[in-house]
Design a protein that fits this description.
By secondary structure, the protein is largely without helices or strands. Among the domains are: 51 residues, no CATH class; 28 residues, no CATH class; 108 residues, 60s Ribosomal Protein L30, Chain: A (2-Layer Sandwich). The protein contains three helices and eight strands, in the order βββββαβαβαβ. The chain has a four-stranded mixed sheet. A two-stranded antiparallel sheet has the order 1-4. The chain has a two-stranded antiparallel sheet with strand order 2-3. Helix 2 links the parallel strand 6 and strand 7.
């Protein structure tokens, strides 16, 4: 094997030093580097073996570093990869929630997901699509505001107690609007009726969605047809007033009964006065 003629020389500042015998164990590795190889950075062809460096300066030699481009100053494990103490896939240097319990889903910052933004993480949120800030399980606290045993989420009348009912609303009774008077032979409300109707409107609002018939009645004076039409106009007038006070129009109907349903005799002025009335009748 011909080795004696092989030598290497390295330039340094434009000068050369004496060539070294390639076969010398003082210059090369134990294998004497007898064949052409590619040298390490900064060395020449056929130079001695490459040193084991640490390119990213993390303290783990390149030959063992599985993450050779770790940013400077980051803490790494024995394999040269950044630490991820909670194992959530976000390295500790970037993890704003470094103690996330194992197996929890996290965002780019390493913090647990909170889909509805109520402060209760999804893994613990029993109502993950309904915001409920300040709760332990992420679900809104259901109250019983009126104390009737029917929770507010099912109570159609949450401010009016109605124990034993299905919807939380009192079973309404017929209201006779005593004092709601009209000008003689007319459907024009008299001023003293306004306060009574205002209270009636408030009561109707407390009844929730209960539909109500506004029933108009007259005494027996005049003929039946005339009395029926007069009572209808008066019922319409009351309905219009209640709607103007905020009662939903689709809850109210108006019907005139004329003299067909007296509550007293029509022989005395007192009896006729009682028969000229308007009633609010809940509909089933």
């Amino acid at each position: 094997m011909i080795t004696a003629g092989l030598a290497s020389a390295q330039a340094a500042e434009g000068k050369y030093y004496d060539p070294s015998n390639v076969a010398s164990p003082k210059t090369n590795t134990i294998g004497y580097e007898l064949f052409r190889t590619i040298g390490c950075p900064g060395k020449q062809l056929l130079d001695a073996g490459c040193p084991d460096g640490d390119a990213d300066g993390d303290g783990v030699k390149d030959s063992k570093d599985k993450c050779p481009t770790t940013p400077k100053g980051r803490k790494v494990n024995a394999e040269g990869c950044e630490l991820d103490g909670d194992g959530d896939g976000v390295v500790d240097a970037l993890d704003k929630c470094p103690t996330t319990p194992k197996g929890r889903k996290v965002n780019a910052e390493g913090c647990e997901l909170d889909g509805d933004g109520d402060g209760v993480v999804d893994a613990l949120d029993k109502c993950p699509t309904v915001p409920a800030p300040g709760t332990a399980d992420g679900c809104p606290v259901v109250k019983d505001s009126d104390g009737d045993g029917i929770m507010d989420d099912r109570d159609k009348c949450p401010t009016v107690a109605a124990p034993g009912t299905a919807d939380g609303c009192p079973v309404p009774r017929k209201l006779v609007l005593e004092g709601v008077n009209f000008d003689n032979d007319k459907a024009t409300l008299r001023p003293e009726a306004y306060g009574i109707l205002d209270k009636a409107a408030a009561t109707l609002k407390e009844w929730g969605d209960v539909k109500v018939e506004v029933a108009g009645h007259t005494d027996s004076r005049s003929d039946d047809d005339y009395n029926q039409k007069l009572s209808q106009r008066r019922a319409d007038a009351v309905r219009a007033y209640l709607i103007g006070k905020g009662v939903a129009a689709d809850r109210l109907t108006a019907k005139g009964y004329g003299e067909s349903s007296p509550v007293a005799d029509n022989e005395s002025e007192e009896g006729r006065f009682k028969n000229r009335r308007v009633e609010l009748v809940p509909q089933k």
